[in-house]
Write a structure and sequence with these properties.
By secondary structure, the protein is mainly α. The protein is 77% helix and 0% strand. It has helices at residues 3-23, 25-33, 41-59, 65-83. The radius of gyration is 15 Å and the shape is elongated. The chain crosses the membrane at residues 6-25, 37-59, 65-86.
């Protein structure tokens, strides 16, 4: 396997793993909504991080789609988790 093919596959696999990492917030969102509140700092910082990486990947001259798609779901799942950490 040549280097560019390896890097392409690595980017796809890493993107899938990153998406699964943020989808895993669903369990915490569920717990938060049922009164088992978690600390809000980690999902907030993750949301900011995902937002910045998504902006970077989308707006650079040669868009970096693996980085974008790996972080874009984290924007929504992280901030949703953050917002449910409080007993409004």
């Amino acid at each position: 396997m040549n280097e560019s093919k390896f890097i392409s596959w690595l980017g796809r696999i890493a993107s899938i793993i990153a998406i699964l990492m943020y989808v895993s917030y669903i369990a915490q969102i569920y717990n938060n909504l049922h009164g088992n509140y978690a600390a809000p700092l980690q999902p907030f910082v993750a949301g900011v991080n995902c937002t910045l990486w998504s902006i970077y990947a989308y707006f650079k001259k040669d868009r970096d789609w693996p980085v974008f798609w790996a972080n874009f779901p984290g924007v929504f799942f992280s901030f949703a988790t953050f917002l449910t950490c409080f007993p409004w």
